[in-house]
Amino acid sequence: MGELKNFVASQQDVVERVKSAGRQAAMAGLGLVEVLKAEGEKLQAVDFNAKGEALKAQALELKTKLQAVDVKAEAEKIQAIDVKAKAEELKALALELKGKVLAVDAKAEVEKLLAEVQKLFNELVAKGEQRAA
Fold first, then answer.
1. CB 125 within 8 A of CB 29
2. Would you kindly state where each structural domain of the chain is located, as residue ranges?
3. Is the pTM higher than 0.85?
4. Burial letters for 59-81: b for 16+ Cβ neighbours within 10 Å, e otherwise?
5. pLDDT digit string (tens) for 54-78?
6. Helix locations, the chain, DSSP H
7. CB atoms within 10 A of CB 30
8. What residues contact 132, with CB distance under 8 A and at least 6 apart?
């Protein structure tokens, strides 16, 4: 009889954990809706016509600058570059970067990323709970 009680208790524990996980997922969903709503309100406040005019002015300025470039002179500069010296310089830089990449503690970076993800999830759950309340 004791085994049956233990089995029923463990089953109830599993059911409670599933309910809790489902509630957290629902609250995270509500939190996400709240965040997206706020972002949507920000987008509605943007004056796209003014942004378009500013981009058009920047494009015209860039066009003017490009027209002023002396292509022949730039081509001569490129031809004057010592390709072998640049290749050696880039090779040395690549070796330096390889050393730096090997020095990165990947496990620590993954743990840091997981902590950030958990924090974001907890924030979404909290916003969902606020919205549900």
1. no
2. 2-127
3. no
4. eeeeeeeeeeeeeeeeeeeeeee
5. 899 999 999 888 888 788 888 887 7
6. 2-44, 48-67, 71-79, 83-103, 106-132
7. 18
8. 27, 30
